[in-house]
Amino acid sequence: MACAAVMIPGLLRCSVGAICTEAASLRLTLSTLRHLTLTSIMKSKRKTDHMERTASVLRREIVSAAKVCGAASESPSVKSLRLLVADQDFSFKAGQWVDFFIPGVSVVGGFSICSSPRLLEQERVIELAVKYTNHPPALWVHNTCTLDSEVAVRVGGEFFFDPQPADASRNLVLIAGGVGINPLLSILRHAADLLREQANKRNGYEIGTIKLFYSAKNTSELLFKKNILDLVNEFPEKIACSLHVTKQTTQINAELKPYITGRITEKEIRDHISKETLFYICGPPPMTDFFSKQLENNHVPKEHICFEKWW
Q1: What class, spelled out in words, does domain 170-309 have in CATH?
Q2: InterPro entries attached here (predicted)?
Q3: Which of 163, 73, 71, 67 has its CA nearest to residue 124?
């Protein structure tokens, strides 16, 4: 997801020392936040406006100060950010996104979190990956954002994987297209954390197998390739992936070659259908529509099909 940002006079409920001191001048009241939200919706006539598209979606109340503590190019068109989050009560479920408020930008952005909840618990850090577009928040991330830039974030979204210890064991099939990998990477990383916890403590939620299908135009646009393959190698009996490219024009790296094929096929997805499997799909609308419809046609219960469209 991606959309926009705002002039932030201040932030609610700071608690990480240095950030709180520096963010003290940013005191965002609830009435100000409501005004910014409405302004964002009124200003944008685009169908892709994040605040308009997600107006009915549940959000957490906490709006936290955050500071950019890392940035990197993940592909020719995608930049990743690490944000140190100030509020100790800020939390999220794997797969959710944040409203992204930027000082001086008049629209509120929406970016999926690609890190695991465990990283936030341990380091107070979340990670985002933002594709370059001409939309103001994405432009700010690519052209203006620097280390120590201050923003504000609020969690929202109903697309997530958050099993409880007593829940029935489930297999996961994750189907990603382009930057739709972001929330699915968060889910994959969370699944890996659950596997580590299970191995170390011999208790907690018992997750089944995880299969990632990830498609992009070419291998340079496959984000987080190393992170994904590291998890496959760490849990070879539990995590598997197939990487799909649709417009590759250059030679494929030898390390990637065993995982690369063409387009994701209906048969590949059908082969993973079972009563114990949950499907999470995120990508361009035609892709999410196609695979969710195929799964329904193959009698997968609707409650086992979760999807989120990016625009």
Answers
A1: alpha beta
A2: FAD-bd_FR_type, FNR_nucleotide-bd, Oxidoreductase_NAD-binding, OxRdtase_FAD/NAD-bd, Riboflavin_synthase-like_b-brl
A3: 67
